[in-house]
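user: can you give me the structure for this one chain? tokens are fine.
assistant: on it. calling the predictor now.
[tool input]
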Amino acid sequence: MNAAASGVVSTVTGVHFAAAVPLWALAGLGLLGLAALIPAFRARTPGRWWRLLVLALVLGWLSGPNLVRQQWRAQPDIALLVLDKSGSMSVHHRAAIAEAARTALVAQARTIPNLQLRTITVPEDGAAGTQMFGAINAALGDIPPDQLAGIVALSDGQIADLPAKPGFTAPFHLLLPARGEETDRRLRLIDAPRYGVVGGSVTLRYVVEDLGPVTLGGSADVTISRDGAPATVTNVAVGAVQSVTLPVTREGPSVVLLAASALAGEVSPVNNQQIVTINGVRDRLRVLLISGQPDPGERAWRRLLKSDPAVDLVHFTILRPPDKDDLTPLDQLALIAFPEQELFERKIANFDLIILDRFQNRGILPAAYLANIARYVRNGGALLLEAGPEFASPQSLAHTPLGTILPGQPTTPGAPDDMMDFPAPLVDVAPAGSGITVAAFRPRLTDLGLRDPVTADLSGTEGQATPDWGHWYRLIDAQSVHGQVLMQGAEDRPLLILDHVGQGRVGLLLSDQIWLWAREHDGGGPQAELLRRVAHWLMKEPALEENRLSATIDGGALTIDERSLLPGPPPVVAITDPAGMVRRLPMSTIGAGHATLSVPVTQPGLWRVSDGTRTAYAASDTADPPEWADLRATATKAGALIASTSGSAHWLEGAAVPQLRLVAPADVGGGFDWIGLRRNSAHVTTGIALTPLLPPWAALPLLLGVLLLAWRREAR
């Protein structure tokens, strides 16, 4: 029987046979008995019917008939309501339509006797798409198969884990929050390198595709922009693979946005764009180091540059100036000739950085080559000059064409000759008017130095302008100083100056005694760290820019980092999300000239950050690329599954929510405005009572009585 409601107890009465002998023996006994009765029926013996009755009683007794009374408790039919909350369900009003349908279905289920409706949610699942059947199979583990009435899924039909064969037989119904099969345009990346060598180029390959029930074809406009620069627009054929080559002009990340024009009637333009972050890296850093004369600092430079596997070092030391004539044979002057023409005329542009270590103008380099160095810097090159007493001499590079790009000039036209090569750090005084300060001092940071990334947070500073670094003992006095003075020495005189010249950069270190730190003199100091930062700033490493606004996205958060040499409160930044909404938020100070801010990333796309002067870009990839690759609502993907389970598909937008009905298994497909759930009539037996119909105490007298009647009938 079918119970009207779950939990109702019903009683069923029937007959059950528990044979005392095997069925084959019982059947054989019956056949033998009938064979023995055949002669009696042919001869029309008067007691033949009584004999047949005796045989029936014997067979009935041996079959063990019992009267059975069973008590059943009806079990409810269970339907599973699956609510898709993956990323694609956030398009348009899908989430609201699905939620309204869920509310209506839950209310309907409460009015249907013997039906339970269990709701599960399919959340966003990383980069694997909508894993609906993973959630369904987990839920089915708690539902007995004979109670499953059906599965109703509120989804756009973009299911990533559709099984080839479902693990259930109940109907699968798909309710889609749309009006019908939709169309969508997408821009898909085929090849997008994440890294490129500075000075080279990278090639992106992409295709624009139109998805829908009908192949549309045609063309689309593709806009390509980079770091907010003016965009280029190209008309491309839909479905054809396209290529675009982009130069890698600088080190660090560069954000490229590719966006296809919208398709009329498409679901959403969200997947019409793709964002690629290309990180510019240097293949090898080519450094030219020229030491004017052997000194202890030369070894410090070599050790620093040779320890970096990314540096190709070319090093020359001038052992003997050309104006010195000591009658030494030419074949004994040096191992190789100084290739000044090759270095400073033909190949100067190949170097990323030129370092002049205590180099003085004694006719080694003609003025034309020094002018080439100045031109090289103005065109984007980098120069670092470590000055010793030679900088204050008549042969100072400041008095050459190179002096036009230096951020400081010596205070006197020339130092006495006996000061030129004085190496010891323990000298107490310098001759008056030499332009050289000789005194023990600790290098310390200026106010700009505390804010500039090159010197801020150096080991031992801990935010202090005067760290406990080892002493130096010689400082070259400078005048006409311009640029950024980051460190100072004795009597607050400039020690380290950095400056921008044209498209390039220049650094001037007004002492030749940084090597004392390398030898741990008086406790030493961050020699390698400081020189490495200066060198990389000169080669335009983005992380060391003194006035910089950067934005990165990692772990679902947009992190904004700001560096500034200007004093004042941290800026208020304008954050523009991919949808064009703008928020203005204040940054938090974490150090001198250093502020930061972190905000959650709520949607994929290009994020723009501006402090009113500078602009930074960050790209947020989609959290689940397969989920956003196809945004159509479609019943096509799940069509085979729906057919194999006798389910149905219904479009919800602009239509009423279908009615739930518990029906016979043959009718579960439903109709135009209703869906069928399978009635299982599942039950649990709660009790059984057996009453023998022919107990031995009754069967034996009955059998004897019939035999007696049969004998008396035949005796007449």
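assistant: here you go. The two ends are 53 Å apart (CA to CA). Residues 184-280 form a domain with the Immunoglobulin-like fold (CATH 2.60.40.10).
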